[in-house]
Write a structure and sequence with these properties.
Layout lengths: L3 E12 L5 E12 L3 E5 L6 H8 L7 E6 L2 E2 L6 H8 E4 L11 H6 L9 H14 L15 H12 L6 E5 L7 H18 L2 E5 L3 H5 L3 E6 L2 E7 L2 H13 L1 H7 L1 H7 L2 H12 L4
Parallel strand pairs: 3-8, 3-9, 6-7, 7-8
Antiparallel strand pairs: 1-2, 1-4, 4-5, 9-10
Helix pairs in contact: 4-5, 5-6, 9-10, 9-11
Bound molecules: adenosine-5'-triphosphate and magnesium ion (MG).
The site of magnesium ion has 3 residues, from helix 1.
Length: 274
C-alpha cells in the first residue's frame, strides 16, 4: 500500500450553469501520511473548494480524488467514509450551542457504534489533550474564542481520523491564540501521526508547517517545503532593518499598526534567534 493519504488527479470543479466559475482547474496534488501542510492563496483561489473535494463534502466536475488509497467516486457511503476517515475544523467552529464541551467533542462518535460511556471517556481524554480538562461542562457561550477553537479541534480528532482538514482554524483568533492553536495541531501531528491540511492566510501559521501549497485561480501555483524560502524571506526581512525600525519607533508604530501586527513583527525578529 502506498503511503499517500491524498492524491488528486486533474481535479476540476466548475460551479454554476450560467456564469460558470472554474473554482478548481486541474489540480494534481500528492500528500503523504503524516504530513503537516498549509494551503495558501488569495481569496477565491479555490482553497475551500479543494478541501471540500478532499473531504467528500462536494463532488468534483471531473478528475479524481483518492483518500487513503480509495477513489471517492466509487465509495457508496460517503457519510460513513467521512465519519471514519476525516476530521474537519472550520473557521466558524460550528459547535452545538446547547451541548457542553465534552458533549460537543463526542458528537462525531455517535453512529460509530461507540457506547455512551466510552464516548464520554474519549471526549474527556481529548479535552485534556487540548488543555481544556477544566472546561468539560462549559457551554460554547461560556468559552473564549480560542477555547472554542480547541474544542473544535478535539472534536475533529474524536473519530481518530487519518486526516484532518482545517479551513482557517485561526482565522478569527488574535495572533497569540492563533499561534497556540497551531502549536497544538503541530503537537497532535507528531503524537498521533495524523495528517493535517490547514488552509490559512496567515504567514506565521504557514511558517509552522512543513510544506506550503500556493493556490492561484484554481491551480497549484507553487508547492514548496518550508525552511529555505521562508528562511530567505526572514533573513531579508531582518537585513532590511525594517522590523527593528518599527519596534524602535514604537510610539509611532503603535499609532499606525495594531498590537497584533507589532507582536508579529517581534515574533519574526525573535524567530530562530535573530
Ligand atoms: N457554491 C458555490 N457556487 C458558486 N460559486 C462558488 C461556490 N463556492 C465557491 N464558489 C466560487 O469558487 C471560487 C473559489 O471559491 P473558494 O471558496 O474555494 O475560495 P477560497 O480560496 O477558499 O477563498 P477564501 O480565501 O475567500 O475563503 C470563488 O470564485 C467562488 O466565488
Ligand atoms: Mg475559503
Amino acid at each position: 500500500m502506498s503511503d499517500l493519504i491524498i492524491e488528486t488527479r486533474d481535479l476540476v470543479k466548475i460551479y454554476g450553469d450560467g456564469a460558470e466559475v472554474r473554482a478548481l482547474d486541474g489540480v494534481n496534488m500528492r500528500v503523504e501520511r503524516g504530513e503537516f501542510l498549509a494551503v495558501m492563496g488569495p481569496s477565491g483561489s479555490g482553497k475551500s473548494t479543494l478541501l471540500n473535494m478532499i473531504g467528500a463534502l462536494d463532488r468534483p466536475t471531473s478528475g479524481q480524488v483518492l483518500v487513503n488509497g480509495q477513489d471517492l467516486a466509487v465509495i457508496r457511503d460517503l457519510d460513513r467514509f467521512r465519519a471514519r476517515t476525516v476530521g474537519f475544523v472550520f473557521q466558524l467552529h460550528n459547535l452545538i450551542p446547547t451541548l457542553n464541551a465534552q458533549e460537543n467533542v463526542a458528537v462525531p462518535l455517535i453512529g460509530l457504534g461507540v457506547g455512551a460511556r466510552e464516548r464520554r471517556a474519549r471526549a474527556e481524554e481529548l479535552l485534556e489533550l487540548v488543555g481544556l480538562g477544566n472546561r468539560m461542562d462549559h457551554l460554547p457561550s461560556q468559552l473564549s474564542g480560542g477555547q472554542r477553537q480547541r474544542v473544535a479541534i478535539a472534536r475533529s480528532l474524536a473519530n481518530e481520523p487519518a486526516l484532518v482538514l482545517a479551513d482557517e482554524p485561526t482565522g478569527n483568533l488574535d495572533s497569540e491564540s492563533g499561534g497556540a492553536v497551531v502549536d497544538l495541531l503541530r503537537r497532535l501531528n507528531a503524537e498521533l501521526d495524523t495528517t493535517f491540511v490547514i488552509v490559512t492566510h496567515d504567514l506565521t501559521v504557514a511558517r509552522q508547517t512543513d510544506r506550503v501549497l500556493d493556490m492561484r485561480d484554481g491551480q497549484i501555483a507553487d508547492d514548496h517545503h518550508v525552511g529555505h524560502p521562508f528562511e530567505e524571506d526572514l533573513k531579508a526581512f531582518r537585513a532590511s532593518g525594517l522590523g527593528q525600525a518599527i519596534l524602535q519607533d514604537e510610539e509611532d508604530a503603535r499609532a499606525v499598526l495594531d498590537p497584533a501586527t507589532l507582536q508579529a513583527v517581534q515574533r519574526l525578529l525573535d524567530a530562530n534567534g535573530a
